[in-house]
Amino acid sequence: MKTTIPERIAIVKEELGIVEDTEFGKLCGMSKSVVNQLKTGLMKSFAPRYAYKLEENTGFSARWMMLGDGSMRLDPSIRQAVKIMEAMSENRRKDAVKIITPLAEPDGDSNSKPQHKQATQ
Q1: Domain span at 89
Q2: Are 60 and 73 a contacting pair, CB within 8 Å?
Q3: Among 8, 34, 42, 75, which residue carries the largest CB count within 10 Å?
């Protein structure tokens, strides 16, 4: 079952030992007023800029914070990889993506071609 934005805010605050909404807001780069609007449902979505700031500061997944999907926290090695990629120039980042993308393929080899079965007659 997906959690609501107010529930996710409560989870983050509890896990970090935060009592005040202003402290949570600082981690996201938002005002206490925005936190209150999210908690009361006046705002229906958690803006990406706030979610990614929270992710950067705490390791709570921006995707989870915005949508309630996926892992609640980023894997520490992924966080480190993101920091490395962010520090690269745009050209180096593009080169790195070209190298990394094949690793995400199911068989780890983007050069392999799918095997087609021939129809039997």
Answers
A1: 75-109
A2: yes
A3: 8
